[in-house]
Amino acid sequence: MDVIKTNIEGVVIIEPRIFKDARGYFFESFSQREFEEKVGKIQFVQDNESMSSYGVMRGLHFQRPPFTQSKLVRVIKGAVLDVAVDIRKNSPTYGKHVAVELTEDNHRQFFVPRGFAHGFAVLSDEAIFQYKCDNFYAPQADGGISILDGDLGIDWHIPMDKAILSEKDTKHPLLKDFDSPFDINIELY
């Protein structure tokens, strides 16, 4: 796998090496050894999958300490714009984001460390989204910031009249009204 660093420390894009021939393709979607060599030591404990239609926006979610999570995300069908927002107090990149298009064709993966809010918007008719987490989901630790916060400067590539959000995701605070439970010293994974 090739690891592409982003403008925020710890957030990386992973491109697998794909072997194609007349029969189709093959690639290794995850290697613990290679991930630890190129990104960092981590142990994933839970895999999740969601299916969504065009215009669905999910996020921007995180888990509060002590249930914080790092995520390794990918799309196996369709296309999404995937985003990580730095919500670590005193971070030089606090409130900044990294956005990457993940598709069934590019096979890219996106690593979102602890201390970041995560969300995505579905750009295709339908998308199947998979992610690995390094901590178990804890509903009592659920947190979020508004996916529609204009101050974040995220271009979701979805007209707002086509956006579909859960009721929960419409109630998250704006970043300026948010008291982050994370600081710059959080272990990213």
TrEMBL record:
InterPro entries: RmlC-like (IPR000888), RmlC-like_jellyroll (IPR014710), RmlC_Cupin_sf (IPR011051). It comes from the Bacteria. Its EC number is 5.1.3.13. The record marks Y137 as: Participates in a stacking interaction with the thymidine ring of dTDP-4-oxo-6-deoxyglucose. SUPFAM superfamilies: RmlC-like cupins. Gene3D superfamilies: Jelly Rolls. Catalyzes the epimerization of the C3' and C5'positions of dTDP-6-deoxy-D-xylo-4-hexulose, forming dTDP-6-deoxy-L-lyxo-4-hexulose. This is dTDP-4-dehydrorhamnose 3,5-epimerase. It comes from Caecibacteroides pullorum. The lineage of its organism: Bacteria, Pseudomonadati, Bacteroidota, Bacteroidia, Bacteroidales.
